[in-house]
Amino acid sequence: MLHHGRDVVREEHGDRGAALTLHQRRGRQAEDARRLDDTEAPDRDRRIPLIRRLCGLVCATVASLQPSEPLKRANPTGNFGAWSTCGAHRARAASGASKGRTPECQQGGVPELPEVRALAERVGAALGGSSLGAVAVPGFSGLKTVAPRPQDLVGSTLERSTSRGKFLVLDFGAPGRALIHLGNSGRLDLEDPAKATRPRGSLVRFAFETRALLVREHGRERRAGLWVLGPGEEGPLETLGPEPFERSFAELVRHGADRRHLHTMLRDQHTVAGIGRGYADDVLHRARLSPFASLSGLDDDARERLLAGVLEVLSEALGRERQRTGGLSEPSLGDRFMIHRRAGTPCPRCGGLLERVSYSSNEIVYCPACQTQGKVLADRRLSRLLR
Ligand SMILES: [Zn+2]
Hints:
This protein is α+β, with helices and mostly antiparallel strands. The protein has 12 helices and 12 strands. The longest helix has 22 residues.
């Protein structure tokens, strides 16, 4: 643990190899947890001496056991082990198979395509055709654009409410569009009637004739975003890949030569828009494919399984989300995944135990029997100790 008389650990992030203090490392892990669309830590540098890998393991383990500040503040009992809003985590704890808790789990996860699309439909049903009376942006740091101003939309009518990837798109016609990304802990309330209060973490309230739409964030995270786009502007939508249900995505899966891990590829919003960690786990389980396989190595049958897995899992999830009513207000969005966050519980297909590969702020869950020919993949925290 101690190098040169200080608690310095070597950050095992590929070639960067920057030396970080323990304090800095924890800060980095917290930052990882805050990213909207998490990216996996690059493969570790295998040349790093064993002693430093051991230090990394100990420090990562210690850091992972520290409850986050929002969790401390939210838990009145101070009993971290017994308190969780995540049903999958409760199942995991009950099974005795894991004591892990991911920051993503604490924060409820980023709403993905099914949640956002169904939310857009509910917003359209509740507010479509209504005139916007006022806009308040108390969380102005979440406002990502300068012009047009949110107030420039006032007086116009909400013509359409749609989704693009993980973005909610409110189309006000000629004056422009408002985009909302809820991030990891952002949620949306449909107020009927509109309220005048300003809850903690409020980002924006769109007040219509009698109803309102409030975007706020749980905890202290401020990662939700609001964009106001003028006519013809695409903003962050410009670089998004196709939607999973589009023909161009099917063409990509059938003929593409992407060499990245499938789990990474599916989560890349520039490749396909709307899939995050949760549905990536579920899709690959459905398709019986390893998260670390690559598209370029798949035969035609596996490619068809992958495409069918994406379409089936997202369609089923969208069907479930359409049963939801109101906004998307809950801090935790519920047990909406079959595989994701369920390591240590039985595989719903074969009954074997689901396994995980852990990263600093998240994990990949898979079934060895169904997805990797029985091979248990190296779990980073564990393998650092064993190697
Ligand atoms: Zn299985």
